Give the backbone structure.
Amino acid sequence: MQLEYSTFNPEDTTSQFLLAKACEPGLEVTIRKKWEPVLPDMKPKDLGIAPACPDLGLFTPGSWAIYFSFTLRKPYISRDDTDFYILENPLKKEWVFKVPYVAPSQWKGALQAAMIHELTQDKGSLSDEAWLDRRLQLVRLFGNEKGVAINDKQFDVFLDKQRPELAKEYRERLKKITDSGFLSGNLHFYPTYFDRIGLEVINPHDRQSGAGTSPIYFECVPADAQAALTLLYVPLHGFDGDPDRSRLQCAADLVQVAKGLHAMLTRYGFGAKTSSGFGVVKEAIKGWIKVAGLTDRGQTSTEPEHGKTAPNVLEEFLAEYPDETFEVSGGMWMKQHPEAGRKGKKRYLAAKEIYERGKTGSTESEQQPQLDFESFDGMIKKAEEIANALKQEGRS
């Protein structure tokens, strides 16, 4: 069968490639070489698919979000599930626009694996209490461990083997936060889209001749390509009901996730062939952290009571104190109303904040400034500052 290659059409490359491979061995190499220069550049922003973080004022107190853009230091490789493609190893792409991307489930798995690895690295230096806290933290973030049940008689999952003497105690504590042993994680990831596609070639050498004869092509996102990662934390599951302890756990989760992101993206990598150095990024990043109720001074502001919207909090307070003008500080108000106590003071401050926000016409998002950073170390430092602010708010 004679194929006329002069009619090459980049948009129909896959069918031509497969036909040539079946009918005229060797011609597929020519098609592939013609295909390489026409690899497209795509702009997710232009397509309107770049994710945006929602207003944290819509979520429960203690919620936070991290966003940052990054640059690949080494190419990123993944595996698509398409059946027919010009390469045997296509890059995973978004279904509609065919833009290379990292799915939320991929981010979750990569970060969870990195944080588990970090935990096992630290096991020798952690006390029994610290080990249990870190392991339960993974449950809060990612959900229950695969293969773990609260009524287990045998303890043979990976983390059980790291500290076998604490496996039973871990399940006892797990019962306090979930009756069934099943739990949904509080960490939510957004997809990441890239705007470039390239090729990597692996050429296995013959042991005797030392020459490579069958190069393997991998579609990839090349080094120096840029993208962004966004994740959201909403503390709905995995807490024992103590508000002060829950606040400290939210703070600890933020710091540990920041450290885990650093480890995953700069040391362990994400995607395929991470053991060969693929899927790592440069240290320089640019982004922000937002926390529900954080003020410009770095302290946490009062939040509406759980389950109540901001207007309801103000209406209920004014129904109880109809002559309130919100002109005094929280301390002065508590002196004027000693019977209300500290809980009343907190209600007053929450109502006052909503009242003043309504007078100025400002929005919830304007009351939540972002804490910017330009490196992984800066992200971890900002996370620790926020954690300290949350802890101080708990003591006040």
User: Anything to note?
Assistant: The CA atoms of residues 132 and 170 lie 6 Å apart. DSSP finds twelve helices and nine strands in the chain. The first strand starts at residue 64 and ends at 71.
